[in-house]
Amino acid sequence: MDGSPVLVLASASPRRKELLRQIGLCFRQEPAEIDETPRHDERPADYVARLARGKAQAVVGRSQGLPVLGADTAVVIDDRILGKPRDAAEAADMLRRLSGRIHEVMTAVAVTDGRRIAEAVSVSRVHFRELTEAEIAAYWATGEPADKAGAYAIQGRGAVFVKHLEGSHSGVVGLPLYETARLLEAFGIRVVGG
User: Fold this and answer.
1) Which residues are catalytic?
2) Contact partners, residue 181, CB within 8 Å, separation at least 6
3) In this structure, is the dihedral angle defined by the CA atoms of residues 76, 73, 158 and 147, taken in order, positive or negative?
4) Can you tell me the distance from the alpha carbon of 188 to that of 183, in angstroms, rounded to the nearest whole number?
5) 88: phi > 0 → left, psi -120 to 50 → alpha, else beta; which?
6) DSSP per-residue codes, the chain
7) Helix axis angle, 177-185 to 14-22, nearest 10°
8) How many CB atoms lie within 10 A of CB 147?
9) Cα dihedral 136/140/144/150 (nearest 10)
10) How many C-beta neighbours within 10 Å does residue 164 have?
11) CA distance 188 to 150
12) Could you tell me whether strands 68-77 and 7-9 are parallel, antiparallel, or unpaired per DSSP bridges?
C-alpha cells in the first residue's frame, strides 16, 4: 500500500478503513459531516443510499481530483432503522428486538469524482440466536455496542449472537467489498490486476 492515494474515504470509521486496507488500496480519510436524520416515510434502503451519496458529495470539493467513496450502514428490523444506542437501556431494547429473529443490514456505497456518481446498496439478512438478559447486560459492559448501529458488532464479540448470515459479511461490518470494488473499477481503480 505504499505510494500515493488513489481514493478519498469520506468516513472516520476504523472498520471501513481496515476493509479498504484489506483489499490493498492506498487512500486518505476525510470524514464528512452531514445531517443523518431520516426523512419522513423514507425507506431504509433510500436512507442509506442518500447518506452515502451525501457523504461523498460533501468531501469531493477537497479531494484534489481523487474519487471519493462514501458509505452508510443501517440495521433494519420491522422496517425500523436501529441507529447507535444512546445508552444502556436503548441498547438492551435493540438487542431484545433482534434476539431470536432475522434482521437486515443495509450498507450503501457511493463513489463520485464530482462529475458523475455511482452507487450500490448491499442488503444482508442476519439470523440472531436468542439472547438472555444476562448476556445483553454483559455485552453492554464490554463497551462494544455503544457506538454500533443496532448495538452490536459482527466483527467483534457480537459475532457470537449470529447463527447465520445471508449476504455480505464485509457489508455488515460497514463496507461491502464486492460492490465497492465494482464501483471503483468504474472510476479506473482496480483492486486486483489491471
Assistant:
1) 72
2) 23, 191, 192
3) negative
4) 9
5) alpha
6) --S--SEEE----HHHHHHHHHTT--EEE-------PPPTT--HHHHHHHHHHHHHHHHGGGSTT--EEEEEEEEEETTEEE---SSHHHHHHHHHHHTTSEEEEEEEEEEE-SS-EEEEEEEEEEEEPP--HHHHHHHHHTSGGGGSGGG--TTTGGGGGEEEEES-HHHHHT--HHHHHHHHHTTT--SS--
7) 70
8) 11
9) 60
10) 10
11) 35
12) parallel
Q: Which fold has domain 7-185?
A: Maf protein (3.90.950)
pLDDT (tens place) for every residue of the chain, 194 residues total? 457 899 999 999 999 999 999 999 999 999 999 999 999 999 999 999 999 999 999 999 999 999 999 999 999 999 999 989 999 999 999 999 999 999 999 999 999 999 999 999 999 999 999 999 999 999 999 999 998 999 999 999 999 999 999 999 999 999 999 999 999 999 999 987 65
Looking at residue 144, its amino acid is E
Domain positions in the chain? 7-185
Whole-structure pTM value: 0.93
Please report how the helices 133-141 and 88-98 are oriented relative to each other, as an axis angle in degrees rounded to 10: 130
* 20 and 70 Cβ atoms separated by less than 8 Å: no
